[in-house]
Amino acid sequence: MLGPSALRPGDRVAHLRGVQLLDGRTTDLTISGGTVVGTGTPPGADVDAEGWLAVTALGEPHAHLDKALTVDRGATRLNGLVEAVEQWHRMLPGIDGADISDRAGRALRQYTAAGVTAIRTHVDVPPDGDALRGLRALLELRDALADHLTIQVVPLISPATPLPVVEAAAKEGADLLGGVPHLAEDPAAETARLLDVAERAGLPLDLHTDETLDLTPGLDLADLADQVIARGFQHRVTASHCVRLSMLPPERLASTLDRVARAGIAVVVLPQTNLYLQGRDHGHSVPRGIAPVRPMLDAGITVAAGGDNLRDPFNAVGRGDPLETASLLVSAAHLHPHEALEAVTGGVRAALHLPAAGPADGAVADLLLVPVQSLTSLVAGPGDARVVLRAGTVLARTRTESATALPATAPAATGVPAHPRGPEGR
Ligand SMILES: [Zn+2]
């Protein structure tokens, strides 16, 4: 009987025998029609998963595949958001659909190897030039890869994009409509314009909101919630970033989150890119620039976490791995590891409006298999082996090898310290 590490991409898995779950139980999983149909002990389990842990496959709720992997094309500069936008716009005229398609494909291989089976990507619809070239390239990729993973494409409307182009983008076959009201001169009017177009096109909305620490103007998110409630907007709404909320005093934050919860808006938090872009103009006491995740969870808001930019002018680093995002949520947003893992698994599926997945009866068999380890170790990542199933079929398999001259068991474990301890205990 094969073990998970012998599986190849494209193999269909019918049974996983002896796989461990996060609660410590060991079980067999039967997969039929892409769904987990039993956690009992079926006859003829065909994959011996003893020693492996199964968790819900990872998700990426907010990527920019059209920008991915461009950082090394220019002098590497450390940018705030405004400079990053300028640098990107200088690059954009030299970027065509084939270029976008190629880099997006490479980025997707990185995401899927990490364990991602569902991804939402924004794509620029610039005010001039062939405005829809990026959108068309990513829609083509979405359709070509539909058998392998779920890709949701969101045209990212610039406030300068003329209305006829916005309308054309909304009719091109995208999954949602997006935009950046906080970059508009009149953010509330830009939010209203995008809600109008989404309403006419029958599309859900995912807006970049409050991606700044400046509290001088009003809050995009509060305004979005009010407009959604006032017009009875019938489609799902997601707000991404929401960085400015971290600067609010508690009472104002609570009333804002209450409106967001009532409007049913899901929030996508993006710790890595926000840590990279925000706070550069603070000489000391630099704010973290991460949306207030704990109060959002306490308010009953659906929260998902993503990586946002991947090695481009907006974020020079990143490895396309939601476990890296989860790890940041633990260290920089003070979530418990189980909450952090939920934000990159179940939270993403909820925000993307996808059916529940994971090692449970009736769930879609999108699974990440890793060697048995603790939850904390999993979130710390990256680990040395991952097997990714999408609807019961192997999407990716990764194993990394390392060799070291050090003994497998550290001498300290047998009572002999590896290094003499100093007075500070290190
Ligand atoms: Zn973004």
Explain this structure:
The relative contact order is 0.16. It is built from 13 helices and 16 strands. The protein folds into 2 domains: 94 residues, Urease, subunit C, domain 1; 294 residues, TIM Barrel, CATH 3.20.20. Helix 2 crosses helix 3 and helix 6 packs parallel to helix 7. The strands form 3 sheets. The chain has an 8-stranded parallel β-sheet. A 4-stranded mixed β-sheet has the order 3-2-1-4, with no helix packed on it. The protein is globular and about 60 Å long. It has 426 residues and is of the alpha/beta class. A hairpin with a 2-residue loop joins strand 2 and strand 3. Zinc ion (ZN) binds next to loops.
Reading side by side through the largest sheet, how are the strands ordered? Answer: 6-7-8-9-10-11-12-13
Structure class? alpha/beta
Number of structural units classed as domains: 2
Percent helix, as a range, is 25-40%
CATH H-level name of the largest domain... which superfamily? Answer: Metal-dependent hydrolases
Helical stretch count?
A: 13
Unreliably modeled segments: 412-426
Query: How far do the termini sit from each other?
Result: 46 Å
What is the multimeric organization of the chains shown? single chain
CA-atom Rg in angstroms: 22 Å
CATH class of the largest domain: Alpha Beta
SSE order, as H and E? EEEEEEHHEHEHEHEHEHEHHEHHHEHEE
What would the principal axes of the Cα set say about the shape? globular
Q: Give the bound compounds.
A: zinc ion
Average pLDDT figure: 91
Summarize this entry quickly.
By secondary structure, the chain is of the alpha/beta class.
